[in-house]
Write a structure and sequence with these properties.
Catalyzes the cleavage of citrate into oxaloacetate and acetyl-CoA, the latter serving as common substrate in multiple biochemical reactions in protein, carbohydrate and lipid metabolism. This protein is of the alpha/beta class and about 1300 residues long. It is built from 43 helices and 39 strands.
């Protein structure tokens, strides 16, 4: 069966017998599957053109094999069962063998989370190491009895050093893992830092390092897989026969040495024996069970212990840290405590003098020069190739030079567009023990081809709980809630779709999920949760149409597998989407429960799992169309009876009350670590504004985002601002001009500038830039903007900006006193004052969430979609939002949680603060310290999403790049507990977040701190015509009607046939013409006849009038289109246009029962020419071979040729009078086409006659002869012919007699 591990094909060209290298998989990323011996079960389903063999003998499926992989109906039941059996094998850890010690078991087997360890030990890491000294990620539950030991000299505080290092994203302490600190992510995950194989890392180093040190064993490595031919391998790498060798798996496995997965000092036969016993064998690594299938062989380097060193470079927000220790290798020990450390600040350069002074203090003078040169070269390589982590242990330095023995690395995958030339096609290995499913690769391929975000990770294909969630943050929240309610073992998948995918993209995503759900029955039936937060700009109805199509396609299997669907969504046009979803449930009989924004986002999880009752008639919010009216009936908000959910109200829980500080969380320790670090980092920074936005804030929008700008202006209008908040737009790709927008009921013009300098000079009042620049141009445009002192706030919407560029932007922003919101954000909103771009969604949500006037609650989150959900929750439980910011999902957001929390603390109008944190990073601990220090005194309600991560058996990369815990203290569970201990209000789950917010708010109202204000109705804003039509409120007759082609979906459709089917059926040009001209799928012979007609009419030499005109026009210097048009204008009854006329004349005579002789005589009597009869050159004695070829084909293939026979009888009469009065090619095609239309079975008689009447047949000549005219044009240009002037001697000048000579 198929081993569905995705591989990116190496750029090796195909063998000589393989054509079209353009089909190679390395040019179509993330769509391939390595074919292993396990593929035999399914290999019969693939054709030769779907398999490619590299020069090294490795076989790959090409991109056109993807459809075959998903034709599940083509698989036999045995095959499908075999595939799923392999995919769902148990992954539980086996019992430890007798050779394992208790210490080893502690390190390998996870245990329940211990609270004291989360607070203390999660910041301290395992001090063991292997031959690479790689830091091991110790689970939060592991024993930490070795974690508090001091370094050899006893002068370091290891707890402080380790937490300090972790706060900057550095590596952990070393372990027995030569591949350290890697986030083992699914192949399809979108994130910045991605682990690469050791072989890839060394290849980069050997190719591009620039150093005076002699780097030995360059490119001396060999890769071994199941397909390896050892004889060929030794030919390519002859050193394998002469040197002692080291062999190890290269699959991101931690603790290779400890697991006995490194073979040292072996000869080639020893390596072969060593590999043979392990290749394709299942191996347990911690909780993961995987197959060893990729090995790396290198020369063995004999050396002494004092020649081993440790070096590591890793990225942090403020710069890059270099760690160096003069003792490397297996016994390197706790490098956090021992290693020398040097911070190279962002944009700073590293010198050999710095290295010698700061890092090489314990190295002998004879090796300092070599090491200094190598480390500087390594750091420059790290920067140039956009590494985020690079570790070598041991680095061996001998008299011969430098040897890189073991290496681990991550690169910033978002820098692909910068480093493509050097990186090539990088393969990012999947996590060990979790091979990719074909469906994951299929969705990854859709994601790569789309501007939207589509993600899928299969966790347990046999599980009964499936999710289809919109939004990166929301997808995490739903997974959290399922796990919190005890569904972790039944959770089948993690995934998300966001970024406004099209209907077709959503359909493809949904049908993939549904095909997986209906693969295997569950005794309790299955549930599908189609959830999401309140969208900011995605048209919910459009995306739901794709899901509805998929449900209709799978309605039979869904009912057979007893699938119940729960839907909750909000956002633009969500009511229509919910209506359509409810209707499909009624028409198909599938139980579908539909809810909108009136329902708490995760309430449907409890319903699906039986923890909440399912309401019979859920309350419904007003329709989107009703936002013209003030929907509020209450003078004071919030209503006392309002609840976060329509389900049964719950009593306040203990989680709603903050807990006093526990002795288990040392406040002094955090104070000594976090705050000095904060002060150090901010020492040279300019103070930033506490108030970012006001009612008078003016902004410039970078990018032609007219919808976002109109949304901002509508928001300004309902907030009763005096003037629009957008002063101008900047768009470098057009000249300066004005763009029309609406301000309430009237139209206004906003200036659009080609460059930033003009915009800044003419709008000195602007202090905010909203950048919709692409990920490629966002850096340059932002750096340019910060040169203008008037700018105080910049919002960067783009996702996927390389981290190195983000850090440079952050550094300059700190120096200039500029607040950056983003990257990878929707922005932020300050009700009654200002909103960034699409934040807050459309006007219906603005009004429903009362964002047109300030409340008393401020929030900060990472997720843009979840920020809109917070708007909804806060508006339903409090008097509303005062300000809200989504800082973005990247690892290094331009501004942090703490930056905004401190602003909120210093803003008098804000009475309470809500923080929605997430897994990954340490920023929430700064909030803890701020509360303990008394810097934050206002109530803080906080919840960190991603609690489910600790329950998964393998790591899952969530939707945001920064949502990945590199150690226990970065888990959501640890941070929630720390916040709870510090005194923040922390719910038990996101499901209870609204309850906690309401409880805190009610206490503040009861204490008189918040006095709810009277509600003031906002002004109405007219609805745009386009949106009113989208909502179905109006109708308008279309300006055009078409029935031949539809380009609106993901795939072009010709007369109802997808373009892929056109090629699959090999319909050819004749078939396409049949679809587009006649809206029929014509028989094969008809398609062939059309193509033959095009070929015989393509050209008839340069002397005919059309070709002559084309040539004259081309020689006059005109362009192709003008020259072609000049030739086409000559086509008519006298030249080329006789097809229609001949068809009409002969058809009329034949249909009226007129004999051929009668027809000829009548035409002569009427003085009319018989169209299609006669030729200037050809005759009965010199026949036209074009006509003869067509005649033979028609007689052999057409069912009947009545009209053609009639025309041939006419020809006998005319040629008897004059030999050149033959049936010419125009006449033949005309009458033969009538026979075709009448007898092929695809048309009624009326339809066939109609096509003749409307001139369809002349199109054959026009289309065919256009090819010839273009040929003549190109010929004249290629021959460089000059202006044509007709010679005098070829002109007969006929003048009046009195003027003649």
């Amino acid at each position: 069966m198929i081993a569905h591990a995705p591989q990116v094909c190496s750029p090796t060209q195909p063998e000589s017998n393989q054509s079209d290298s353009g089909q190679w998989l390395h040019k179509i990323r993330r769509t391939g599957f390595t074919i292993t011996p396990h593929t035999k079960v399914c290999s019969r389903h693939f054709t030769k053109d779907q398999i490619r063999t590299t020069a090294k003998g490795r076989r790959f499926l090409t991109a056109n094999a993807i459809p075959t992989l998903f034709e599940w109906n083509a698989y036999s039941n045995e095959t499908r069962a075999a595939v799923w059996e392999r995919r769902t094998r148990p992954t539980s850890s086996p019992e430890p063998g007798p050779a394992e010690t208790e210490e080893e078991i502690v390190d390998m087997v996870p245990m329940p989370i211990d609270h004291d360890y989360v607070v203390y030990g999660s910041m301290v890491l395992d001090s063991m190491s292997d031959e690479c000294g790689a830091p091991k990620q110790r689970p939060a539950s592991r024993c930490c009895k070795r974690s508090t030991r001091t370094s050899g000299d006893g002068h370091h505080n290891p707890v402080k050093l380790k937490l300090l290092r972790r706060l900057h994203g550095g590596p952990g302490s070393p372990s027995q893992d030569p591949e350290p600190n890697r986030s083992l992510v699914p192949h399809s995950a979108v994130m910045s830092a991605k682990a690469i194989s050791e072989q890839t890392g060394k290849e980069f180093l050997y190719k591009y390092i620039c150093t005076a040190a002699a780097v030995q064993n360059r490119f001396c490595y060999a890769n071994v897989t199941m397909e390896t031919d050892w004889d060929r391998l030794t030919q390519e790498h002859p050193w394998l026969l002469t040197k002692s060798l080291v062999v190890k798996p290269d699959q991101l496995i931690k603790g290779r040495g400890k697991l006995g997965l490194v073979g040292i000092n072996l000869d080639l036969q020893g390596v072969q024996d060593w590999v043979k016993t392990r290749l394709m064998k299942e191996t347990m690594v911690a909780k993961a069970k995987g197959v060893l299938k990729n090995f790396l062989i290198e020369p063995f380097v004999e050396h002494t212990q004092d020649e081993e060193f440790y070096v590591c470079v890793y990225a942090a927000r403020e710069g890059d840290y270099i760690l160096f220790h003069h003792e490397g290798g297996v016994e390197v020990g706790d490098v956090d405590a021992k290693a020398q450390r040097l911070l190279v600040a962002v944009d700073d350069k590293l010198s050999e003098e710095q290295v010698m002074e700061k890092l090489l203090v314990h190295v002998g003078d004879e090796k300092k020069g070599v090491l200094a040169s190598f480390i500087v070269g390594l750091f420059n390589l790290y920067e140039d190739l956009y590494f985020t982590y690079l570790e070598i242990n041991p680095l061996v330095v001998t008299g011969d030079g430098v040897y890189v023995l073991d290496m681990a690395a991550k690169i910033d995958a978002t820098a692909d567009y910068i480093c493509k030339a050097k990186w090539g096609d990088v393969e990012f290995p999947p996590p060990f023990g979790r091979e990719a499913y074909p469906e994951e690769a299929y969705i990854a391929d859709l994601d790569a081809k789309s501007g939207a975000s589509l993600k899928l990770t299969l966790l347990n294909p046999r599980g009964r709980i499936w999710t289809m969630v919109a939004g990166g943050g929301a997808s995490v929240v739903y997974s959290d809630t399922i796990c919190d309610l005890g569904g972790v073992d039944e959770l089948a998948n993690y995934g998300e779709y966001s970024g406004a995918p099209s209907e077709q993209q959503t359909y493809d995503y949904a049908k993939t999920i549904l095909s997986l759900i209906t693969c295997e029955k569950h005794p309790q039936g299955k549930v599908l949760i189609i959830g999401g937060s309140i969208a900011n700009f995605t048209n919910v109805a459009a995306t739901f149409k794709g899901i509805v199509r998929a449900i209709k396609d799978y309605q039979g299997p869904l009912k057979e597998h007893e699938v119940t669907i729960f839907v909750r969504r909000g956002g633009p046009n969500y009511q229509e989407g919910l209506r359509v979803m409810g209707e499909v449930g009624k028409t198909t009989g599938i139980p579908i429960h539909v809810f909108g924004t009136e329902t708490h986002m995760t309430a449907i999880v409890g319903m699906a799992m039986g923890h909440r009752p399912i309401p019979n008639q859920p309350p419904m919010d007003a329709h989107t169309a009703n936002f013209l009216l003030n929907a509020s009936s209450n003078a004071v908000t919030p209503a006392s009876t309002r609840t976060a959910s329509f389900s049964e109200p719950r009593a306040a829980t203990e989680a709603t009350h903050p807990k006093k500080s526990k002795t288990s969380f040392p406040a002094d320790s955090l104070h000594s670590i976090l705050w000095p670090l904060k002060n150090l980092v901010m020492a040279n920074c300019k103070a930033k504004a506490t108030t970012l936005f006001s009612r008078h804030t003016k902004s410039i929008v970078w990018g032609m985002q007219t919808r976002a700008v109109q949304g901002m202006l509508d928001f300004d209008y309902v907030c009763s601002r005096d003037e629009p908040s957008v002063a101008a737009m900047v768009y470098p790709f057009t000249g300066d001009h004005k763009q029309k927008f609406y301000w309430g009921h009237k139209e206004i013009l906003l200036p659009v500038y080609k460059n930033m300098d003009d915009a800044m000079k003419k709008h000195s009042e602007v202090d905010v830039l909203i950048s919709f620049a692409s990920l490629r141009s966002a850096f340059d445009s932002t750096m340019e903007t910060m040169q203008y002192a008037q700018i105080r706030t910049i919002a960067i919407i783009a996702e996927g900006i390389p981290e190195a560029q983000t850090r440079k932007m952050i550094k300059m922003a700190d120096e200039k006193g500029v607040t950056i919101i983003g990257p990878a954000t929707v922005g932020g909103i300050k009700p009654g004052c200002f909103k960034i771009g699409n934040t807050g969604g459309m006007l219906d949500n603005i009004l429903a969430s009362k964002l047109y006037r300030p409340g008393s609650v401020a929030y900060v989150s990472r997720s843009g979609g979840m920020s809109n959900e917070l708007n909804n929750i806060i508006s339903r439980t409090t008097d509303g939002v005062y300000e809200g910011v989504a800082i973005g999902g990247d690892r290094y957001p331009g501004s942090t949680f703490m930056d905004h929390v401190l602003r909120y603390q210093d803003t008098p109008g804000i009475k309470m603060i809500v923080v929605l944190g997430e897994i990954g990073g340490m920023e929430e601990y700064r909030i803890c310290q701020g509360i303990r220090e008394g810097r934050i005194t206002k109530p803080v309600v906080c919840w960190c999403i991603g609690t489910c991560a600790t329950m998964f058996s393998s790591e899952v990369q969530f939707g945001h790049a920064g949502a990945c815990a590199n150690q226990a203290s970065e888990t959501a569970v640890a941070k929630n507990q720390a916040l709870r201990d510090a005194g923040a209000y922390v719910p038990k789950s996101f499901d209870e977040l609204g309850d906690v917010i309401k409880t805190v708010y009610d206490e503040l109202v009861a204490d008189g701190i918040i006095v709810p204000a009277q509600e003031v109705p906002p002004p109405t804003v007219p609805m745009d015509y386009s949106w009113a039509r989208e909502l179905g409120l109006i109708r308008k007759p279309a300006s055009f009607m078409t029935s031949i082609c539809d380009e609106r979906g993901q795939e072009l459709i010709y007369a109802g046939m997808p373009i892929t089917e056109v090629f699959k059926e090999e319909m050819g040009l004749g078939g396409v013409l049949g679809l587009l001209w006649f809206q029929r799928r014509l028989p094969r012979y008809a398609c062939q006849f059309i193509e033959m007609c095009l070929m015989v009419t393509a050209d008839h030499g340069p002397a005919v009038s059309g070709a002559h005109n084309t040539i004259v026009c081309a020689r006059a210097g005109k362009d192709l289109i003008s020259s072609l048009t000049s030739g086409l204008l000559t086509i008519g009854d006298r030249f080329g246009g006789a097809l229609d006329a001949a068809a009409k004349q002969f058809s009329k005579a034949f249909d009226s029962g007129m004999l051929p002789m009668e027809f000829v005589n009548k035409m002569k009597k009427d003085g009319k020419l018989i169209m299609g009869i006669g030729h200037r050159v050809k005759s009965i004695n010199n026949p036209d071979m074009r006509v003869q070829i067509l005649k033979d084909f028609v007689k052999q293939n057409f069912p009947a040729t009545q009209l053609l026979d009639y025309a041939l009888n006419v020809e006998k009469i005319t040629t008897s009078k004059k030999p050149n009065l033959i049936l010419n090619v125009d006449g033949f095609i005309g009458v033969a086409f009538v026979d075709l239309l009448r007898t092929c079975g695809g048309f009624t008689r009326d339809e066939a006659d109609e096509f003749v009447e409307i001139g369809a047949l002349n199109g054959i000549f026009v289309l065919g002869r256009s090819m010839g005219f273009i040929g003549h044009y190109l010929d004249q240009k290629r021959l460089k012919q000059g202006l044509y002037r007709h010679p005098w001697d070829d002109i007969s000048y006929v003048l009046p007699e009195h003027m003649s000579m």
